[in-house]
Structures are given as structure tokens and as C-alpha cells.
Fold this protein.
Amino acid sequence: MQRALPPSAEKLRFLLAGGSTTAASYALYLGLLALDVTPMPAYVASYLAGIVWSYAVNVLWVFRSRPRWRSFIRYPLVYLLQAIASFALFPLLLQLGAARWAAPLLVTGIMLPATFLLSRAIVRE
């Protein structure tokens, strides 16, 4: 059995993992835009890739667990509510005049508190 991380170390790792997830998915989004993929499909693809990245980083590095198919399959279900809200918010921000490059960052900033609360609830189950 592995020793649990101190709460402060786990929080720091969680924040760093979130930052890496945001950076990786945003880089993919910008790359897809550069390939002339329209914004919404680029956003959906980068969002889904971000979930896979997030799972891997959280399981292997933040919580130092073993990846399991069962948790991998359940992991995206946790983000279903966040995804629905994000996918509704993204086109709204574009309609309100947000730049294509800025819209994913705005969605992330707006959704961050909900994401934190949801993630914390899942981790503490």
C-alpha cells in the first residue's frame, strides 16, 4: 500500500495536473484551428483528449494509483455535467464576440470552480 500524500502536496499536484491538462488540450485546439478545423469540432476533440490526459495524469501522478478500465470508463461520466455546460457556454461566448483563440480559456476560467468542487467530491468518495 502506498503512503498518502500530504494534503498540500496533493493539492499542488492536482493544480499542476489541471494546468497541464489545460495546456495540452489548448495546444491541440490551436493546432486543429491551424489545420482549418472549425472551432466547435476542434473544441470537442480537444476537450475529449483533455479528459484522457487528465485521467492519466491524475491516476498516475496526482493520486499515484493504478489505471483501471473501470475507472477509465467512469472518469468521463464525472465530467458530463461540466461538458454540457462547457459546450453550451463555448458557442455563446463566440456569439457574444469572444475571439476563437480566447473562447476555450474563458470557458475554463468560468468552469474552474465547478470543476474543482466536482473533482473534490469524486476524490473523497
The chain is about 80% helix and 0% strand. The first helix runs from residue 7 to 34. The CA atoms of residues 56 and 69 lie 12 Å apart.
